[in-house]
């Protein structure tokens, strides 16, 4: 089915350039919404309430979200210009550590999930049609928080940045990594990211 | 000098309001920020082609990332700022948190919400005036309506009766720092104030403006002003602590993370 959609989108690109962009955006949005609905289904499972079965559910969620994010893009973009000077080994290690950190943060954020309502408010497509920004509003208690996802088309649509209240997560990490790389090298950065990921996984601080 | 200190405390309520707190440390996101159920797609909204995040590179320019420099704002006082950041961290974790835990244990949530609503309503002139200064008469009108509703039917602001009522749906909080930004005043450099937290030079000056527009400023004697302000800040500390926790959980280099998040957030607020 997804393949058909891609073909349809591709046809639009050829025949009707003017309509190509909305099609691309909708396709990306479907992927995003699908993934998250799957996560929500997992969260609703009774097994999630039981401490002994919860790790299995979380492992399933992990598998689902892994397919939504491009950790390659996230890593490159978060490191910035110095990414080019990383050796292939360093790139691999960094990517693994950063993925662990983001996953820990994501899973941590799920613990506070309380049936928040999310509304899609808009989409923007790049002129080439290879990137989209899906804009949403998350309602938490009496507050609303704008959250946007930037997605890139490779062989499928993948998230490469999450923007909350106008703050890009990737840019935020980039400013942190820049500060670390100004003083240390890639290996020092990898160690710090790995440490933070481990700390996050054990649930500290802020418990 | 004393007046300055008072000003500082007075302004915290404005910035300590939940919405602000939620955004000082936004990179960590609200608990469910990553969750996107597929419900409620609005057809009208889906057609919109505007960019919701004008402060960031557009999608077309978003490939130049590898050549962008990381630091988003000048930070000539970094030595002092890092010390102030550490001090604020200590005050939050070792003083604020234990005190607040005790307070929230003995104070029911409805009371805390009421106090929070009260001070938010009281600071209405700051938001109203700055909406007008930024040429947003409609938003100013909404603020005015909400103020009248909440001050009367809402028992002096304790209850947010206006809530999400149609025609007076809450508008974005406007402050003097944003007004200065809208008028083209540069943001200057970054500065971390002890107790007040991260600011730009422009937002520091903006604090002075907010102070003038805040009704509590003009109460005599000043001890009452300080007392009120401390209450307002302390009552909202829970939001700040929650977000600070989330921040620490995700940040590899917390100082840079907060600096960048603050600056990105304020820029976005000015552009909206």
Task: Based on the model shown, name its key terms.
heterodimer, A: 207 residues, alpha+beta, 57% helix, B: 272 residues, mainly alpha, disordered N terminus
Question: Strand sequence of the main sheet of chain B, in spatial order?
Answer: 1-2
Q: What general outline of chain B do the C-alpha atoms trace?
A: globular
CATH architecture of chain A: Roll
Q: Kindly report the name of the CATH homologous superfamily of chain A.
A: Tgt2/MlaC
Strand order of the largest sheet of chain A: 1-2-3-4-5
Domains counted in the coordinates of chain B: how many? 1
- CATH class descriptor name of chain A: Alpha Beta
Strand content of chain A: 15-25%
Largest sheet of chain A: 5 strands, antiparallel
Mean pLDDT across every amino acid position of chain A: 82
What class, by secondary structure content of chain A? alpha+beta
> Count of helical segments of chain A?
7
Low-confidence parts of chain A: 1-5, 8-21
Overall 3D shape of chain A: globular
Distance N to C terminus of chain B: 35 Å
Brief synopsis:
The complex is a heterodimer of chains A (207) and B (272). Chain A is α+β, with helices and mostly antiparallel strands.
Structure description:
Chain A is built from seven helices and five strands. With 207 residues, chain A is of the alpha+beta class. Chain A has a single domain, classed as Nuclear Transport Factor 2, Chain: A, CATH 3.10.450.710. In chain A, α1 (2-15) runs antiparallel to α2, α2 (17-44) packs antiparallel against α3 (54-66) and α5 packs parallel to α7 (186-201). Chain A starts with a helix and ends in a 6-residue tail after the last helix. Chain B is mostly helical. Chain B has one domain (2-111, 171-271). Chain B starts with a helix and ends with a helix. Mean pLDDT of chain B is 80; it is low at 1-51. At the A-B interface, α2, α5, β1, β2 and β3 of A face α2, α3, α11 and α12 of B.
């Amino acid at each position: 089915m997804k393949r058909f959609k891609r073909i349809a989108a591709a046809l639009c690109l050829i025949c009707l350039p003017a309509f190509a962009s909305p099609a691309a955006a909708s396709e990306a949005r479907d992927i995003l919404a699908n993934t998250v609905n799957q996560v929500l289904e997992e969260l609703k499972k009774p097994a999630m309430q039981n401490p002994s079965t919860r790790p299995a559910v979380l492992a399933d969620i992990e598998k689902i979200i892994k397919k939504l994010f491009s950790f390659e893009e996230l890593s490159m973009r978060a490191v910035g210009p110095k990414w080019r000077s990383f050796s292939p080994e360093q790139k691999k290690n960094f990517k693994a550590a950063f993925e662990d950190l983001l996953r820990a943060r994501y899973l941590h954020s799920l613990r506070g999930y309380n049936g928040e309502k999310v509304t899609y408010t808009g989409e923007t497509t790049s002129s080439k049609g290879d990137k989209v920004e899906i804009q949403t509003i998350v309602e938490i208690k009496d507050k609303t928080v704008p959250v946007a996802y930037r997605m890139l088309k490779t062989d499928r649509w993948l998230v490469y940045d999450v923007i909350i209240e106008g703050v890009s997560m990737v840019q935020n990490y980039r400013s942190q990594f820049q500060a670390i790389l100004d003083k240390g090298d890639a290996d020092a950065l990898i160690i710090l990211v790995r440490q933070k990921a481990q700390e996050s996984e054990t649930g500290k601080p802020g418990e | 000098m004393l007046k300055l200190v008072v000003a500082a405390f007075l302004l915290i309520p404005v910035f300590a309001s939940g919405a602000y707190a939620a955004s000082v440390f936004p990179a960590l996101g609200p608990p469910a920020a990553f969750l996107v159920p597929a419900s409620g797609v609005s057809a009208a909204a889906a057609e919109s082609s505007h960019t919701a995040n004008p402060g960031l590179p557009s999608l077309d320019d978003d490939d130049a990332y590898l050549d962008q420099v990381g630091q988003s704002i000048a930070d000539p006082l970094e030595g002092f700022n890092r010390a102030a950041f550490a001090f604020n961290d200590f005050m939050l974790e070792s003083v604020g948190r234990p005190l607040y835990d005790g307070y929230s244990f003995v104070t029911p949530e409805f009371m805390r919400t009421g106090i929070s609503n009260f001070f938010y309503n009281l600071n209405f002139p700051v938001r109203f005036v700055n909406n007008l200064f930024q040429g947003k008469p409609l938003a100013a009108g909404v603020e005015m309506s909400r103020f009248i509703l909440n001050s009367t039917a809402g028992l002096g602001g304790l209850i947010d009766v206006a809530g999400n009522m149609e025609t007076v749906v809450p508008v974005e909080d406007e402050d003097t720092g944003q007004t200065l930004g809208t008028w083209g005043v540069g943001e200057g450099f970054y500065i971390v104030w002890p107790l007040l937290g991260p600011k730009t030079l422009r937002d520091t000056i903006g604090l002075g403006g907010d102070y003038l527009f805040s009704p509590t400023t003009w109460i005599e004697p000043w001890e009452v002003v300080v007392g009120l302000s401390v209450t307002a800040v302390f009552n909202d500390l829970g939001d700040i602590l929650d977000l600070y926790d989330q921040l620490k959980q995700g940040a590899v280099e917390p100082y840079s993370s907060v600096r960048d998040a603050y600056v990105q957030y304020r820029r976005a607020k000015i552009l909206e």
